[in-house]
Amino acid sequence: MVRLVLFLVLLAVAPAPAQTGGAPSGESRTIVGEIVWVDLPSRLVLIRESVKTTKVKGQPPARQTVAVSVAPDVAVTRGKKTVPLNDLKAKDHVTARYLATPEGAKAVAFRVAEASEPEAADVPATRKN
Q: Residues 105, 98: contact at Cβ < 8 Å?
């Protein structure tokens, strides 16, 4: 019995294990939407969600808008190519995975959809009468 009490006391006063790695702590989230604006000097990208969602049951759905900070070491990809941040523009469709931190949203992965040209098969043919 004394050993159990001693074990519980040691467990209660033991320091929490230190966080390892250089990654910032925070909840990982993903947003899919379109770019509203890009601020190159501060490396911020404002993204508006494509689909309305609700976090609380019974509340009306709403589009979330998130300002994501893109660090220089985070790769921004368009298709299979890495592109510079200044290649982004408003209305680009993006998927960003980020960490929600007290300092704001920090990008972990940033992918931009490739602009596609409609193929001839996709364009409906017009009839001449």
A: yes
CA atoms of 109 and 119, how far apart (whole Å): 30
In the chain, the number of structural domains is 1
State the pLDDT at residue 114: 84
Q: Is 60 exceeded by the pLDDT of residue 27?
A: yes
- Cβ atoms of 98 and 64 within 8 Å: the answer is no
3-state secondary structure (DSSP) of residue 46 = strand
* Dihedrals phi, psi of 6, to nearest 5 degrees: -60, -40
For residue 106, the Cα-to-chain-centroid distance in whole angstroms is 8
Handedness of CA 49, 97, 25, 11 (dihedral sign): positive
pLDDT tens-digit map of 58-72: 888 888 899 999 999
- 29: CATH: 2.40.50.320
Residues 6+ away with beta carbon under 8 Å from 48: 33, 34, 36, 63, 64, 65
For 91, the domain range is 25-54+61-112
